[in-house]
Amino acid sequence: MLIIGGISLYNFWQKKKEIHENRQEHLDQVKAELKDFVVFFDNTVSEFEHKLSTQAEYFSDTLVNHIFADTKDIESTDLKELRKVIGMTEDQDIYIVNKKGVIVNTTYEEDLGLDFFSFGEFFVNHFNHVWEVGTFVEDRISLEMSTKRPKKYTYQSTLDKQYVVELGLYDTYSENVVELFTQKLNSIADKYRDIDTISLYFGMDKFINYQGHMLTDEQMQEAKTALENNAEFKKAYVDDGVTRTTLFMQLELDDSALQDDYVIRVKYNNERELELVSAEVKLFGLLLLFIIIPISLLILWRAKVIAKPISILLEKMDVIRGGDLGTKVPVIGNNEVTDLAIHFNDMMAELKQSHDTLEEKVAERTRELVEKNKVIESTHKSIQDSINYSKRLQNAVLPKEAEITAHLAESFVLFRPKDVVSGDFYWFENHEKYDFIAAADCTGHGVPGAMVSFVCNNALNRSLYEFSKLSPENVLQHTREIVIETFSKSGHDIKDGMDIALCRLNKDRDELLFVGANNPLWIIRKNEHLSQKELEDRKTIVGDSYSLIEIKGDKKPIGLHEDMTPFTCHNIPVYEGDTYYLFTDGYADQFGGHKGKKLMYKPFKKLLLDMAEASLENQKQELAHSFDTWMGDYEQVDDVCVIGFRL
566 with 630: CB under 8 angstroms? Predict the structure, then answer.
């Protein structure tokens, strides 16, 4: 049955392939014939066009350089009377186009008020080119949309560049050639049995057709698709109960310059394919009646003979599936099923023996796993206790927010460790007459990052209290020396360290100094307080009432680096209402959103600008909410630390 069905299917596909190959051969013939005729049409029209070009250039020069040298009356001049004066015929039209692309005066009244620019970017670029070159510009003969007559258009800018004088010239000889061209196009389809119509369109933006075969918007898009991709676009549809196919394909013309783009539309019916399907269905029906059905009856009888032993075998298999591996299948008859039952019983005996052995091994391995799990649980508890203790130590080192708000009433700290402990930390100290505040990002995160943060936090405290470094650049300079010295005790060049943004405020709050190691300071400031330099700085984001100013830190960390020069101190002017932000890279580097990408700094800046007038407590809540919303179901990738304070 499979062979017979396969043969029928093979015959069907072979005949269908033959039809498609013949159709492709017809399409190639259509392409070749159209190509030759379009080139002939182009060359013929070119001969007539030379005389029109000479006339148009003369009339255009007369109008631009003499009659409309002064354009004050150009929109009110009686162009029909003027046309007679300069020797133009009624088949030759004048159009005056203003800078907005609108026809403001013309001998062809139907086009008065026509807006070229509304037709798309092509016409905007075209007229701008005419104004730019300032000389005579001509198009090849094309089809006038309203009359469907061939017409040659030329363009020339007035001397003051305020108008374009456009001429449109009909030509009787060209019309005769177009009529012949149309008859030829309509007659090509008569040569082929399955082709209904052949249409030729040209012009990428507005497809023009001499035959009057219009395109719907959908078909115009299909034609553009074929042209842009240089490929065939095929679509089947049902018309009057007959299945037909519309095919668009590009006509490539290297020798023709009359138009830029040509597309052929071929409509053909699929009746031959339907006839083929009908014939194959009839053949298969005969095969079914005289061959397949008798063979099927024979197979059913044979199947019945062996069905009963197989049914018994299936019943026993259900018993075995329930767990009774000792069940045996009765041996019945003397055929293939009999041999199957014998082999099945032998297999079940071996399987039961293997099952008993396996149960003993499973029990032994289970006891081993129980003992190992106890060890793992004990080890895990010890590790977790150590990490929790590290967290308590880190929390003890970090300043309390109440301590910060006691000196900076309007402030917040958003602190989100990735793991239990963090490589990020924030630092605040009130020493003598200064307040020091910083956001730091140490190498790594989790326990390794926390260990580095202890070293760096301790180095900051020593620099301030033990070595009395009060200027922020000296604090970072000495902190770097302490960090390098600490890690050098391992006997290796360890480049662990930290990035940091550090501010120092004096008691009167009229001076703020900033030093950064890789990390910047952001300032939200009212626009009225911006300096000219800040306005011109490309890093400044200017909003409606507030702007964001970015003060870059030095491009080097606290730790071993090829650049060991001193850090730069920035003296920041202080204005009432200024809000300052110190942060690590964890907030901007978080993956999330619909596409799973990084948040990045630009949306971070926009969020802060949008909240410029909000209280610092509301800002903290909004920052936390926006971070959680962006992150969604993604895992937090780094520690997060953001500090804000307002003076």
Answer: no
Side chain identity, residue 127: F
- Label residue 645 exposed, middle or buried (CB < 10 Å: 0-12, 13-18, 19+): buried
- Whether the per-residue pLDDT at 443 is higher than 80: the answer is yes
Residues 6 or more apart whose CB falls under 8 angstroms from that of 390 comprise 420, 421, 447, 450
Mean of pLDDT values over 214-234:
76
Task: Please name which of 21, 2, 587, 592 lies closest in space to residue 272, comparing C-alpha atoms.
Answer: 21
CATH superfamily of the 400-646 domain: PPM-type phosphatase domain (3.60.40.10)
Q: Give the separation between CA 442 and CA 558, rounded to whole angstroms.
A: 9
Q: How far apart are the first and last CA of the chain?
A: 91
In CATH, the number for domain 2-168 is: 3.30.450.20
Alpha-carbon distance of 168 to 64, in angstroms, equals 15
Identity at 41, one-letter amino acid code:
F
Taking CA atoms, 505 is separated from 392, 571, 584, in Å, by 30, 10, 20
Q: What mean pLDDT is predicted for residues 512-540?
A: 94
- Give the start-end residues of each E strand in 209-254: 233-239, 242-250
User: For the structural domain made of 174-274, what CATH number should be given?
Assistant: 3.30.450.20
Reported in sequence order, the residue ranges of 82-228 that DSSP labels E, i.e. its strands, are 92-98, 103-106, 137-138, 142-143, 150-157, 163-170, 195-202
Per-residue pLDDT for 274 more than 90? no
Checking if the pLDDT of 17 tops 70, the result is no
pLDDT digits (tens, 9 = 90+) for 375-415: 667 655 655 555 665 677 777 789 998 999 999 999 999 99
Q: One fold for both 2-168 and 174-274?
A: yes
Does the predicted model carry a pTM greater than 0.70?
A: no
Any idea what DSSP says for residue 490? T
**CATH code for the structural domain at 278-397:** 1.10.287
Using DSSP, state whether 196 is helix, strand or coil. strand
pLDDT digits (tens, 9 = 90+) for 126-150: 999 999 999 999 988 777 767 778 8
- What per-residue confidence (pLDDT) applies to 387? 62
The domain spans of the chain are 2-168, 174-274, 278-397, 400-646
pLDDT digits (tens, 9 = 90+) for 566-594: 999 999 999 999 999 999 999 999 999 99
